[in-house]
Write a structure and sequence with these properties.
CATH architecture: Up-down Bundle
Radius of gyration: 18 Å
Distance between the termini: 21 Å
Strand content: under 5%
CATH topology: AhpD-like
Oligomer: single chain
Number of strands: 2
Shape: globular
Number of domains: 1
Largest sheet: 2 strands, antiparallel
Structural class: mainly alpha
Order of helices and strands: HEHEHHHHHH
């Protein structure tokens, strides 16, 4: 990316961060639980049965405390432990056993999080994407929904694929062909699986109007 464009991206991010910080300082909506920062409280261990054990084992460090709660990306899916457990299995299959390298996978996750404005997982995976080698300028383009012209072919293809999948509800023949050439048929399907795994959690967050964590920067 040209220096002038990169500088512009940094200025946009700074302005967005300031606006978001001001917004986070405002009172929560009346229907938002002050602890979960959502329309529903967290699921507590005392209100579940053995079917939720794996969820507590994964998401709760002190598994012996009877008042433990499930937080994190499956916090509200956990109102149906079978659904949350199935989503956990989906994550393990799509992310843990997929064919995509870390760079492509983390970029795909950010694209999906941006499609649903899923603050919680964006905050967790932006640093992971940086560690995986995704350039900061590429992350800013995803954050700001910027143009992908001039990006590396693989990065541009992942972003286009996600935007067409979520925004257009139709993946073009050209974008699909590019993804297939880069990642193979199975890798392209892994791309769909990874993106949708994180989009599902994002839809739960939309439904319960989950607010960004205090002190975090909201997606624009």
């Amino acid at each position: 990316m040209k220096p002038a464009v990169a500088k512009f991206c940094r200025r946009v991010l700074l302005l967005a961060s300031c606006a978001a910080s001001l917004a986070l300082g405002q009172a929560l909506p009346a229907d938002i639980d002050p602890v979960s920062k959502a329309r529903l409280p967290y699921v507590q261990r005392k209100d579940t049965d053995e079917s939720a054990k794996r969820l507590f084992d994964v998401f709760v460090r002190n598994s012996s405390a009877p008042t433990d709660v499930i937080k994190g990306p499956l916090a509200f899916a956990a109102y149906n432990p079978a659904v949350a457990t199935a989503l956990l299995d989906l994550h393990d299959a799509a992310v843990g056993k997929g064919r995509l390298d870390a760079h492509v996978r983390e970029l795909a996750i950010l694209v999906a999080c941006r499609a649903t404005n899923y603050h919680l997982e964006w905050a967790a995976h932006e640093p992971a994407a940086v560690r995986a080698g995704v350039p900061a300028a590429v992350i800013e383009i995803v954050r700001q929904r910027g143009a992908v012209d001039g990006l590396e072919t693989a990065d541009a293809t992942v972003i286009r694929f996600g935007r067409e999948l979520f925004d257009d509800r139709k993946v073009s023949a050209a974008t699909f062909a590019a993804a297939k050439q880069l990642f193979g048929a199975a890798g392209t399907m892994d791309l769909v699986a990874v993106m949708n795994t994180y989009a599902v959690s994002g839809f739960f967050a939309i439904a319960v109007d989950e607010q960004p964590a205090e002190g975090s920067v909201a997606l624009p």
